[in-house]
Amino acid sequence: MTNISNQDFNRTFEGRIALVTGAASGIGAACARALSKRGAAKLFLVDVDEEGLSALNLECDVETIIGSVGDEALWDVLEPRLTGLDHAIVNAGIGSGGPISDLTMSEWRRIMDVNLDGAFLTLRSAMRAMKASDGGSAVITASTTGVKPVPGVGPYGISKAAVAHMARIAAMEGAKDNIRVNAIAPGGVDTAIWESGDDFRRAVERFGRDATIQKMAQTTPSGRFASSEEIADSMLFMLSDAGSNITGHVLVSDGGFTL
Ligand code: NAD
Known about the structure:
Blueprint: E1 17-21, H1 26-37, E2 42-47, H2 50-54, E3 61-66, H3 72-78, E4 87-90, H4 105-132, E5 136-141, H5 154-174, E6 179-186, H6 198-207, H7 209-216, H8 228-239, E7 250-253
Parallel strand pairs: 1-2, 1-4, 2-3, 4-5, 5-6, 6-7
Helix pairs in contact: 1-8, 4-5, 6-7
């Protein structure tokens, strides 16, 4: 492990190999761009959105994998190719709405398949690959909805509480193999994930997107949503050698939402 003070911070990921899921949009795309800009040699990018992935146009060597993180067969094929993996951003996720008493089992499974099963399959393959080399680090994208109970987003919040705990357990298990695992719990971030909500889409039709985001941000002390780039910067700090003593931590980045 190199001391960060001896490195050019802008080249923190020089020569590194990293995996990013949900890389076609929002936080995952910002992580992929930042890793490439900071010198990563190769990125494995996983997403269901082929068009979004090809639009990224990164400087480093890129291998795109089109498919769902919840599909075990995808990992059976990808895992043997992850030789020498240094870092993983376990990030793909989808939103959901509706109170627990109204939820169907299929809606519950739809969310868990991506947000929980997908995170497990991603982290399992990443940790196996890192264990086979000299170790590495992973950051999982959780959410403040997994920290503070927010009514109406049951399966989403529950899946995010689960992946935050997954990071802590994986940190305990990975330490002996020089693997660090952390999570980030963002509050509102201005990304496409909000478009999947019916209430959001209705509000956008009535008031416009900017006004809708601004109104939602009023429940946050900072009065604003974060950008994907802000969240990616915090994730890359924990992922990098600058975070070399940080493991099993869930970093809340929410403009004060959970206070
Ligand atoms: P986004 O919709 O912009 O990006 C999510 C990406 O995941 C998309 O490219 C999508 O195609 C991909 N994806 C969805 N299902 C997939 C699957 N089965 N397999 C592979 N890829 C899949 O949203 P985002 O806000 O950037 O979301 C990234 C992560 O951040 C998610 O885990 C989300 O839950 C989390 N998060 C977002 C917010 C927010 O306010 N935007 C807040 C807290 C946490």
